[in-house]
Design a protein that fits this description.
Blueprint lengths: L3 E7 L3 E6 L4 H7 L18 E6 L4 E4 L9 E4 L46 E7 L3 E8 L5 E8 L9 H38 L6 E8 L1 H8 L4 H4 L10 E5 H4 L21 H7 L7 E3 L1 H9 L5 E4 L9 H10 L8 E6 L3 E6 L4 E6 L20 E8 L2 E6 L7 E2 L1 H13 L18 H5 L4 E4 L2 E7 L10 E4 H24 L9 E5 H6 L2 H6 L11 E5 L1 H11 L1 H13 L1 E2 L8 H8 L10
Parallel strand pairs: 1-5, 6-9, 9-12, 10-11, 13-22, 15-24, 16-18, 22-23
Antiparallel strand pairs: 1-2, 3-4, 3-5, 6-7, 7-8, 10-12, 13-14, 14-15, 16-17, 19-20, 20-21
Helix pairs in contact: 2-3, 8-14, 8-15, 11-16, 14-15
Amino acid sequence: MAEKYRICFRPQNKEIEVDAGTTILEAERMAGLEPDAPCGGNGKCGKCKVDIVKGKKTGVVLACQTWIDSSMTVDTMYQEKVRKILSDGLTRTVPVEPGVFPGEDKKPGKGGESGQGGVPFCLMAFDIGTTTVVGYLLDGRTGRTLSVASRMNPQHAFGADVISRANYVLEHGEEGGRELRACIVAAMNGLIREAADKAGVSPEDILQTAVVGNTCMHHLFLGISPDSLVHAPYVPAVRRGMVLTAEETGLRFGPCCPKEEKDGKIRSFELEKEISANEGSKERFLISRDMRRAEKAREKQGVVLLLPNIAGFVGADTIGCMVSASFDRLEELTLMVDIGTNGEMVLGDRRKMLTTSTAAGPAFEGAKIECGMRGADGAVSHLRESDDGFSLEIVGDAKPVGICGSGLIDTLAFLIRHGFINNYGAFRDPEDLEDPLAQKLKNRIITVHGQPAFLLVSGAESATGDDIYLTQKDVREVQLAKGAIAAGIQILTEKLGKKTGDIRQVLLAGAFGNYMDSGSACEIGMIPYELHDRIKTVGNAAGEGAKLATVNRGEFEYACRLSEETEFIELASESSFQDVFVDKLEFERAVEDE
């Protein structure tokens, strides 16, 4: 039997007893903490540092690479949570017609009277993002937003990107799937309680919720193995929209849903049985057996609508964006892009719609960037050029700690504009700089780990006492990410027989698209520069799509139709992709070498 040791985590003041040989990262998860582990605990990102202040060994270590061999006290050294989570986005007005609920005599009418004789009721919508989770509480009679609750996605303790989390489940089998399902369901239940408390209502008053998320988040929420997403041909285990009971999903809302799980476990969703029960159905979405039984027995049950997926890496969140924009009704050729660990994009109009996803990687969220971090207090969020150099915007007006994605894009655009790096992404030697401003700042080109880097903040000015800089390796990470997105845009355009200039508007969705400077994104070549004056940010359009689907059942059915009518393009199977990708690695607007 393994020897056990007691671990105390500060500043959370949580204690836990674990077996010898457990990593500190695993112990943090077991204690209910949410450690930052972008690489999934593989020792590659260096973001899970903790300080062992008491134990057999002391000092700063990587939590994922340190095995517990004594009782210890550990300072988790957590950075502050993301300061602001994006919740607003592009929306439109629809009639409030949520649909028929089990146990109701009729659906709520346009006048706002429910089947309960006008008794008020609530609706909810969720956007499960890879990084954050947002919940919206809505008035079921008017559709008005009553409150919004949000938090970091606790699954980030298992990896910053969907591939890391999928691999964790595959490596740990059913238990791994239960872990990731349990933590996201617990987070959503917490948001339900928080949103209800803010609005002065009870979770029992919530009768329906709609959920969007990328395909991996969708599968992990339902406890579906992500195996089909990480192995060819990379397809969803389930694509169609789904109608389930709250109890099936583990969400605690509605008149009949238990306030606590009796055995502390969340029910497993039996996907194969549900699909077989819907075989031959003409409906565009799957209705679970429990849902059908509840409807037949006229039992009051909370209803969960899951919007459909399109492909392995184009999920319900993209459908939510399309619903919010009424994409198939657009007259002008439109490009919609949601930039995250995957760059999902849709191109088209009312005549035809194409979609694809590019593996942008987690660079824009701070992972794989040496001084990278999320948009928390202390993050360099923007770089503004000035006569004598540049100034930095810091989240929270705090002392700088690191650089987040929007600051990364601005910095790279600045370096390109003034010739610090050439069009292939290589730093120039200080003596070769020709631009007057670059010559003035040439002492900011330093050497880190034997490679050139650009110094943004000296250790004397940072919160940690360490320099904040952008290395040659960081530039390469951004090149790979922006090259993939730019290649995806070009191939979709060619597939429609169009030219880039034919695109009349670009809709940037999601948090990163909202906070980044679109001009900087164009300057580094992530978005074609000729489109720089056609860009519009639409915020959390995915969440707005979920709100529309829960407010009006016809919008949910519309979402299901959109998923069928949108053609998915698999970039990896396109013969031209590799050549286009390599071309797009270059910084087209960089100062050319002579």
